[in-house]
């Protein structure tokens, strides 16, 4: 996500996002990056952060900042050359390795096993231990939005990305065994957003129309839930996020409303196998008829099965972009929205739903005075290319490596 940059406007923020477990907010700006702990946002009246200027490395205008959980390992994509992936250790101020591609990098996802790099027409998979390329998925359907996600659970690395440019099909790929897993149609229109839950057994999807959000089981692709985001007008879905217990799903868009959906089966769903068989029979008939008149059947099906949002949170206004997360803190769920105009808002998720109350608001980004910005260092590339990453649970145990791909 790139943007113009001036000293007097919030467009100095190029990138904003939550890490894999929603414990960290990452901000990329014209000189470097900042990290904020979501627990601090909820508990402290004055917000502090960690951050560095990367001008000494020539990495000004950070377009993408992705951090591996709460470790010191992160990746940086700079406007200087958006085709280069920089893997960076921010404690030692060392670039571990660079990888150059023939097109701009649109999205990067990390877990403890893999780094996934998405270009508009292919996806590259790297082994986190030694930063070597494991596989490249070539000639993927054109994906100019960079729609992709990676499961975060250890030992599990499923990638989801659009399987078609004509329909909203989802393709699942196993990044550990390097093999295709499944393809299923999630929407009639093309995909705009998708997101795994933390266990990697569910995925939420939204199309470019943005009116209906669906949840599917992974890897089978069986539809589990279907929700109508709001009124029928089309919107652009910016982000989707599950709660850590997968009981809630939140979505944000180019409107000022954040929607929260409750993931629970309707009463009576647990009972009868006969009812489930009947529902399965109806679904089979529905799919058969859909082959002949898909648009009409889809509209009737959505009318019959979709549910409205369980709760909503109101942002002060629409922004250029935003990201939403469901954060658990001291046995309480919160909805947190970070916006490109330099604010983060926290709302307490009431068990009864409804319109949620704003309980915290903080300024974030390069204009915040409380952020501890590290001074310019002398970080550079290490010449030791044989080291690996022995302990990814230790934030300080990421020895530098040097590896550059052409």
Model description:
This protein has 406 residues and is mainly beta. It is 9% helix and 42% strand. It contains three helices and 31 strands. A five-stranded mixed sheet has the order 1-2-3-4-30. A five-stranded mixed sheet has the order 5-6-7-8-31, with no helix packed on it. The chain is globular and about 55 Å long. Pfam families: PROPPIN. Belongs to the WD repeat PROPPIN family. One of its GO terms (biological process) is germ cell proliferation. InterPro entries: PROPPIN, WD40/YVTN_repeat-like_dom_sf, WD40_repeat_dom_sf, WD40_rpt.
Oligomer: single chain
Question: For the CA atoms, what is the radius of gyration?
Answer: 21 Å
Query: What percentage of amino acids are in beta strands?
Result: 35-45%
Question: What is the β-strand count?
Answer: 31
Distance between the termini: 24 Å
Overall pLDDT = 84
What is the approximate shape?
A: globular
The helix fraction, in percent, is under 10%
